[in-house]
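During the reporting period the student researcher (J.K.) took over the structure-prediction task from the postdoctoral fellow and processed the backlog of single-chain submissions. One of the processed entries is reproduced below for the supervisory committee.
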Amino acid sequence: MAKSFRIQTLNKISSRGLARLPASYEVGDGVASPDAILVRSANMHDMDIPASVRAIGRAGAGTNNIPVAKMSERGVPVFNAPGANANAVKELVAAGLLMGARNLIPAISFAGNVNGTDEEMHKSVEAGKKNFAGIELPGRTLGIIGLGAIGSLVADVAIKLGMNVIGFDPGITVEAAWRLPSSVKKAGSVEEVVRNADFISLHVPLIDATRNLINTQRVALMKPGMVLLNFAREGVVDNAAVVAALDEKRIRAYICDFPANALKGRPDVVTLPHLGASTEEAEENCAVMVAEQISDYLENGNILNSVNFPNVHMDRESGFRVAIANSNVPNMLGQISTAMAEAGLNIHNMLNMSKGGMAYTLVDVDSAVADAVLDKIRAISGVLNVRYLPA
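J.K. obtained the following structure tokens:
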């Protein structure tokens, strides 16, 4: 019998992604008592998230619009779609490199405001074009801060454009390291990147450690005439520091995806309306990825790409599964195993993983689990959430 879950959508989610959810699911923006929520940009921080919610899926990479810490306290995983929009952002960064190098936006504005006869316009263009002379990319150095799915693609395209690349990422994963082109020079700090780059591209999430990552101190280390690109998050750059550096001509241009009053009206600034992932392909890829992750979690308890839970996948070898989210404290597995043994349940398979202060356990047993056993596990100190998932 097909399982049925209720999925609330807070934004328009790609139909291709929603099609990956089983037809038996109830899906829509008006769904009451949802088992899961799918969201793009809607701000959930002030939302009264129903107690029925077992998972939240963000059809994108960043989760700043979701109260992740509160969900962790409830044992609710928050999923995202890392890498699904990587190509879209990479292409925008490539455009940003060219905009910054060749002064394309002010040149377009100039050409669009030339008036007169064709002959007069030709003369004006020939006289004015010297104001927009640019530089070429081959031989220049691109510094990349953040070498994940997007950063590695940006490195690859920069190398193909003839640039040298230096990168820094203190938390780079083994998988990301394998994706990185071998010619990328690995920097030991943000400061090393800033000192050596002609262009800098930022690809980090907005967390406490990256807020105002580019600040007055680091701007002071930059080469005069460098170009800064920010298609990551608005808060990773201190706009006041950048404006001061633009005034001093230390920064040649600032290209970003985040309009702000401090940046308005400047010929040396290009702001785009948060276009990073705004392609049909990226929206579809994100929706497909997160829909598949949500359905696998609801039906089987498996976790992939959660920002607050570890990745956990266990193939089903039994028709009776229990999924347990708990604080990462000693003797939790022992207490769970004891509760099941005392109920006469034989554990067929068990997998436990942790991530920071959060732990997650999947247990397959050989017979049905009574509500009393589940309640006993829920009563264990540190257990946050218990779900029974019979096949």
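The committee noted the following: Residues 43 and 57 are 13 Å apart (CA to CA).
J.K. will present the remaining backlog at the next meeting.
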